[in-house]
Design goal:
With about 210 residues, the chain is α+β, with helices and mostly antiparallel strands. The protein is about 25% helix and about 25% strand. Strand 3 and strand 4 form a beta hairpin. The longest helix has 16 residues. The two termini are about 15 Å apart.
């Protein structure tokens, strides 16, 4: 930054301020999951889990009239890099209903497991059958199958949240969602752009920061 300011080049004040903002913001935002946790708290973990569950189990139990309450907890140290998001309290003495569960990495946001138990009445007797997706056996559509899921995840992991709406498009060459708080086709855009790159198959946050 010092070298840039020392150059005898006259630039408009607005351009200079924008450049400084980009420099400062890029230092505070994580570039990938190894620098700072992509899922730093329980609120973020629940928001990401609900975004992933939305296309897998339906919107009614996520944000409809019969929406379930979800809770998030971390494993005890030194294995405290995995969030467990469930539709049941972490401490439960008596709990008879099957539990919907999402496991995701704190550092990278990668989805490790989704467990969706369903009631089965045929053939009798009544029993529970589980739909289980894992990092090694993800859904055929991926954990981030569409634009809406990608946008919901980007909204959840950006701190502080952007004041602009997010837009997502898929890079089909590497199956990575590019989510930005600016339109894809933009002629004039003066503010720094928040960019989040999300792997379609695993849900891993590959990159996050201002540009």
């Amino acid at each position: 930054m010092e070298r840039i300011l020392e150059r005898p080049i006259k630039i408009r004040r607005g351009v200079a301020i924008t450049a400084i903002m980009i420099s400062l913001l890029s230092r505070t935002m994580p570039i990938d999951g190894t620098i700072s946790p992509c899922i730093p708290d329980s609120t973020t973990a629940i928001a990401v889990a609900k975004a992933v569950l939305h296309p897998l189990i339906g919107s009614e139990v996520i944000d409809g009239e019969k929406a379930l309450s979800f809770y998030a907890s971390l494993d005890a140290s030194p294995h405290d890099n995995i969030w467990h998001v469930e539709d049941a309290p972490p401490v439960r003495a008596q709990w008879v209903s099957p539990v919907i569960r999402v496991e995701l990495e704190k550092d990278s946001g990668r989805i490790l497991k989704v467990d969706d138990p369903i009631f089965v009445y045929d053939p009798p007797p009544f029993h529970v059958q589980e739909n289980i997706w894992t990092a090694d056996n993800p859904p055929k559509i991926g954990f981030v199958p569409d634009e809406q899921v990608a946008v919901d995840i980007a909204k959840a992991v950006t701190h502080p949240p952007s004041t602009h709406p997010f837009y997502a498009h898929l890079n089909k060459e590497n199956e990575v969602w590019i989510v930005e708080d600016a339109p894809l086709f933009r002629e004039k855009w003066t503010t720094p752009i928040m960019r989040v790159e999300i792997d379609k198959k695993s849900g891993r946050i590959l990159r996050m920061g201002y540009q």
